[in-house]
Amino acid sequence: MAGSARELLETRQSCLLAVSASSFVPWLLAQPPERLFVRWGLFPGVTGARSEASWDRVGASRELSFDDRTSLTETIETLGGNSLSYAVSRFEGPFGKLVDSASARWDASETARNSCEAVWTYSFAPRSVLGRPVLAPLLVAFQTGFMRQAMNRIANALRDSDAK
Predict the structure, then answer these.
(1) How does DSSP classify residue 127?
(2) Please, what is the end-to-end C-alpha distance for the chain in angstroms?
(3) What is the DSSP letter of 164?
(4) If the chain, 164 residues long, is cut into consecutive pieces of 10 residues, what is the mean pLDDT of each piece?
(5) Pair 47, 41: CB distance under 8 Å
(6) What is the pLDDT of residue 2?
(7) Burial 65-82 (b: 16+ CB within 10 A, else e)
(8) Strand partners, 75
(9) Phi first, then psi: what are they for 161, rounded to 5°?
(10) Rounded to whole angstroms, what are the CA distances from 83 to 23, 66, 120?
């Protein structure tokens, strides 16, 4: 059976981090996104975030700007314990022609004292069944590398901080 446009395409990355699981999500929310999410190949990097209020509660939204002059909106859906999930909408540029919406989730689980495994999952809803075959290999080629690079930047930033 052929896949429908509504079947989500998922990318996932995980990393061991030098921070407790309970400290990770608050630390992540406090970081300027342009510090962690930089250009990877053709995948644009974040240049800034705009929001009406702080991005640290359910319902809070922010608009991310990218170095290719596109933007998107993130809205926190759940926040608690060692996890964060947010809806991603208003994709612009070429990606916006392929993606209707997305959701993302961060989960942290304790692995040892002051150490956790963080898992970042992105689920994309293709705009159409015709765009799906184009989007799937792009996600494998670019989103996965972008996420891996971000995880490395997060691990390095945590090593240099006192968030533990």
Answers:
(1) S
(2) 48
(3) -
(4) 65 95 95 96 93 91 96 96 95 90 97 94 92 87 92 94 61
(5) no
(6) 46
(7) bbebebbbbbebeebeeb
(8) 61, 87
(9) -110, 180
(10) 11, 25, 10
